Amino acid sequence: MGQVMVLGGGAAGLAVAAQLKAKGVECVVLERGPGVGASWRGRYDRLKLHTTRGLSGLPGFPIPREYGRWVRRDDLVRYLESYADRFDLEVRTGVTVKRVKAADGGWSVQLADGSEEPAPTVVVATGYLHTPVVPAWPGLESWTGELIHSAQYRDAGPFRCKDVLVVGPGNSGAEIASDLAEGGAKKVRLAVRTPPHIVRRQTAGWPAQMNGVALGWLPEPVFNTVAAAMARLEIPDLRPYGMGRPVEGLKTRLRTQRYVPLQDVGIVRDVVARRVLPVAAVESFTATSVLLADGSSVQPDAVIAATGYATGLRELFEDPSLFDGTGVPRVHGGAPARPGLFFLGYDVTLGGMLRQVAIESRRVARTVSAR
Predict the structure, then answer these.
(1) In the prediction, which pLDDT does 2 show?
(2) If DSSP states are collapsed to H, E and C, what string results for the chain?
(3) Which member of 179, 193, 268, 286 has the greatest number of CB atoms within 10 A?
(4) pLDDT in tens, 298-334
(5) What's the total number of domains in the chain?
(6) pTM for the whole thing?
């Protein structure tokens, strides 16, 4: 077993493994899925990166130009496979980690097959998209319609000619709603609890990601004001169509909720055309109805819960003080959470997730190699 054990064979895990290897540090990557990039393999078919190819490559190997500016899901998986091959990384797939425990001189990783592997240093890079979460809505157990998490959604085919309620106006929920509207669903509603901050993916060729990179240093009140002004210029007023404007500033939501804005890849068009109908938040279920926060109810054939994920990290460690109330590591991104223990890929920024893990992977590798 290598000196450093990296948990997770996604972008963050591969990036840090390559950086460690470049510094002469032996490591092995453990991935529970059948191949690298497992969380990307399972996402919906139309998914593309919301960040540009040029700002999404991992250290030492850019994403190929032929994949275009907005990289498709399958091309990103191919890129991650090529990245692992290019740096000849040791990746063990189909390996599920059950527990990580402190041991003399380092850590011990317990695997699902009952074996335990010692490791002086452990880098946890399993990411946010680990465990799909469906809220415990009252009455859900009585619901007789179809309900899936957005993690299970692939395309609109199974929902053709059906009445569908999508819950959650984040990037996944909005894009799935548009996919359903384009794919022949009879009616598509989008349940909204907190109005989203909506940005254009690009304006006159300038990507929204660059605004986050270029303006992210601004003080929170200034950034909030600038972001609100830009939104009013770029995005039509959707209040007549049932979509309110956000009250809390964008950078404030980023700081307090790890929130990133909704990139418009069709949802504004579909809301204005009334192909997607915003409705109030879900409150509860009956056998055949979904009750909404404004007192109304709807009777969809299917509900798709784009309601986020849990990190699944609390179940891996005995020490609950490692994590905040949402299960995110309190210390991450380069500094050790404990001697020989690092968490990578849990910092949400407006500059993009892949760009951030590239930055963090260099930090972690420098710190580990200095030990």
Answers:
(1) 54
(2) CCCEEEECCCHHHHHHHHHHHHCCCCEEEEECCCCCCHHHHCCCCCCECCCCHHHCCECCECCCHHHCCCCEHHHHHHHHHHHHHHCCCCEEECCCEEEEEEECCEEEEEECCCCEEEECEEEECCCCCCEECCCCCCCHHHCCCEEEEHHHCCCCHHHCCCEEEEECCCHHHHHHHHHHHHCCCCEEEEEECCCCCEEECEECCEEHHHHHHHHCCCCHHHHHHHHHHHHHHHCCCCHHHCCCCCCCCHHHHHHHHCCCCEEECCHHHHHHCCCCEEEECEEEECCCCEEECCCCEECCCEEEECCCEECCCCCCECCHHHECCCCCECCCCCCCCECCEEECCCCCCCCCHHHHHHHHHHHHHHHHHHC
(3) 179
(4) 999 999 999 999 999 999 999 999 999 999 999 998 8
(5) 2
(6) 0.94
